[in-house]
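Lab notes, practical 5.
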Amino acid sequence: MTLMHPEFKRNEAVGLDLGWINQIRVNRAATDRRAASLANRRTVKKEYQAAWLVKAIQMIDLTTLGGDDTPGRVERLCMKAMRPLRADLMDALGLTQLSTGAVCVYHEMIQPAVKVIQGRLPIAAVSTGFPAGLTSMETKLREIELSVAAGASEIDIVITRQHVLNGNWQVLYDEMLAYRKACGVAHVKAILATGDLLTMENVAKASWVCMMAGADFIKTSTGKEGVNATIPVALTMVRTIREYHEQTGFQVGFKPAGGVSSAKSALQYLTLMKEELGNEWLQPHLFRIGASSLLTDIERQLEHYVTGSYSANHRHAQP
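Output from the prediction step:
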């Protein structure tokens, strides 16, 4: 299974335009004001909030990327991904079918995921020397090929940050192009590790270069940096996606990851996508949230909507 929608035309490499890249500027003050407007507004309530939270579940890449991961943990994660809400909550909300957007694991945990999921959900694997991305290019490409062969239908690659910091856009483009080719039919999410890129201009330029090289998604973070997903960074990235679509006709997806752990923050990202890119991007083939604990908080909020009471975290199955 891939993240492709039946009517979705996959992003193709369009060639690197250094003239365009070099003229990119970001108005940081305006970006921060727009981001604050999302953070400070009143959220939706009652049945509207419940509907948005169900939508958020469908966008989650349910993730486990710990050094202590085991096949058993991954199997439980996959079962939770296929049945993210308890049966009583599903009945109360009038839902008959619901799953997360995908699961996201290390290469060694692909086989346990395949065993449980059996083609019913996409399996994403982090690759290319995740999280630092400082292994050899030969190793990175082979890692992608092995993960695809093992059953991953999506590959979350990490870019080499030094290419961005040194302004080596051609080298970054060639790297991303090679990753795209190695993925074959598997879709590729380019992790920018925005917390390491220092400036919003670097975030915007790296987004453009990766999209020009054929990235199907651009993703904020590995979740391992000191600063991960933030609304200002997300705003900068989704606006590059909008401009890229206007110029090329290709739709590229967006994935915030790292630190998105509350239902409130998930609603902010959904609002951002709706207002900046429109309802068309509120689908799993164009929007994902990389998260591990987010699902628990959403389930608690939905239980409160149904019963009027909050439950303790330990009453909910942990992925």
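Observations recorded by the TA: Strands lie at 60-63, 102-105, 123-126, 154-158, 187-191, 217-219, 253-255, 289-291. The mean pLDDT is 94.
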